[in-house]
TrEMBL record:
The keyword Metal-binding applies. It comes from the Eukaryota. Its EC number is 2.3.2.31. This is RBR-type E3 ubiquitin transferase. It comes from Gigaspora margarita. GO terms for biological process: protein ubiquitination.
Length: 78
């Protein structure tokens, strides 16, 4: 999983380099609340594996804890 995240991040950085303006616009609305402590988290990396400041790790797409099974609607669901 860690390796996958790095690859996605690298791809995002390349995409940003090509079109920085539209990339920053796409951040609008990319805020969610941590299911554990309700802190707002801004998604600003290509990885859907989120780690809150409280240490809670969760999936950006389905909001389940990262090490628990994902919801069937999530693209990480197997
Ligand atoms: Zn939290
Ligand atoms: Zn998920």
């Amino acid at each position: 999983m860690e390796e996958e995240c790095k690859i996605q991040k690298e791809e995002l950085r390349q995409a940003n380099g090509r079109n920085a303006e539209s990339a920053s616009e796409s951040y609008v609305g990319q805020l969610k609340q941590c299911p554990n402590c309700s802190s707002r988290i801004k998604k600003n990396e290509g990885c859907d594996h989120m780690t809150c400041r409280c240490g809670h790790q969760f999936c950006w797409i389905c909001m389940n804890e990262w090490d628990k099974p994902h919801k069937s609607s999530c693209s990480f669901y197997v």
